[in-house]
Amino acid sequence: MEKENSEYLVGKCLVSSPCMEDEPFSRSVIYVCSHTKDGAMGFIINKKIKEFSFADLAMQLPIDFNKPVTPIDLYQGGPLDKVRGFVLHSTDYKRADSIEPGGGVAISSSIDILTDIAFGAGPKDNIIALGYSNWAPSQLEQEIINNQWIVVPASPELVFKTKDEDKWQAALDSIGIDISRFSNICGRA
Known about the structure:
Helix content is 20%, strand content 29%. The chain is globular and about 55 Å long. The protein is built from five helices and nine strands; from the N terminus they run βββαββββαβαβαα. Strands 1, 2, 3, 4, 5, 6, 7, 8 and 9 form a nine-stranded mixed beta sheet that branches. The chain is α+β, with helices and mostly antiparallel strands.
């Protein structure tokens, strides 16, 4: 019998353990949007892209802008397919392609949401992520066993309202983890 979705990590966040030092995962918080026996996918939600802006992105899209675009941050969703965009957003906004994995977060990937955001008609809260993070079958589970990730509940407050530089610690605080008690060595005891 196949596991039900509730046994997977969809709609949760992964917090990198202190021993993860490789970018982009060092001190990262990842929202998991898909997790099945075939693997997992998620988006880093606390690392802004500094060298590329929403205005730069908007100029590459087939959208006719009559006025300058409001500055909007872009996020490094992960190391894979960095030119592909996804929008994590509040559930007040729905389009045909929107999905709601859980934790009060929805995801859309059509150009329509970017247009709506640019013109102020988009969701109340959003994170525009370029790229994504992906795990092969059983890879994420093994990384969790090896203490590379800590699983925490997702919430709109954590995903959208907490300052990026505070998300890692806030995620740990949400489940009462004192990171100073962690070993700096990953692996199993």
